[in-house]
Amino acid sequence: MTEHLHPALDAAHLHCRSLEEALGRFRRDALPRIADWGDRLATVLTGGGRLLAAGNGGSAAQAQHLTAELVGRYRRERHAYSALALHAETSSVTAIGNDYGFDHVYARQVLAHGRPGDVLMLLSTSGRSANLVAASVTARRAGLHVWALTGPGPNPLAEAAHEALCVDAATGATVQETHLVAVHLLCECFDTVVSTPLARRTAAAPGRTS
């Protein structure tokens, strides 16, 4: 029986090794941007703005995970902030898809819910989902800030967003696992900023002179 486990065990080791390598690259290259997003998201949400998020399939679950952490809480008790997962609006998604086509299910909701200065977070392992690209184009025209978490770049979604973090990984599964880490890090950075008194944040800002 042990011999029969070797292929599965080898596959598991390979998967873990690929994830470790992807996370290593992410830690080396992406943390400054995640911290910056957390800081800017805190400014938007504490100022009365909103986060809209969307994805397809597993990426939809990741997007909804992010909004749940903001409306509820991540680790520490704090204020509730406005965040909507657009794919979770099932009646809207099915009505829009039926009337306008699946490529418009998110763009139409961005027009309804987004306001200038809000943030739209789009997640895609491929970066090639037409409905997410359409949402990005619509959001930019409406004055939202568009951030994308994608798989390897370049890709259409990364190009359509204002800013993107492209995870360098060989499989969609590893990309999604890294995206989950990115979601948690974004929440960690967001919570750190909103729990830090403004005077301390101002004193710590780069380039400040006394």
How many helices in DSSP terms? Answer: 9
- The total of beta strands comes to 5
Radius of gyration: 18 Å
Shape: globular
Write the layout of secondary structure elements.
Elements: H1 2-29, H2 31-46, E1 51-55, H3 58-71, E2 83-85, H4 90-100, H5 107-113, E3 119-124, H6 130-141, E4 145-150, H7 156-160, E5 163-166, H8 172-194, H9 198-204
Parallel strand pairs: 1-2, 1-3, 3-4, 4-5
Helix pairs in contact: 1-8, 2-8, 3-8, 5-6
Keywords:
alpha/beta, 210 residues, 5-stranded parallel sheet, 9 helices
Give your account of this protein's structure.
This protein is α/β, with parallel strands linked by helices and 210 residues long. Helix content is 59%, strand content 11%. The chain contains nine helices and five strands; from the N terminus they run H-H-E-H-E-H-H-E-H-E-H-E-H-H. The chain has helices at 2-29, 31-46, 58-71, 90-100, 107-113, 130-141, 156-160, 172-194, 198-204; strands at 51-55, 83-85, 119-124, 145-150, 163-166.
Quick recap:
With 210 residues, the protein is α/β, with parallel strands linked by helices.
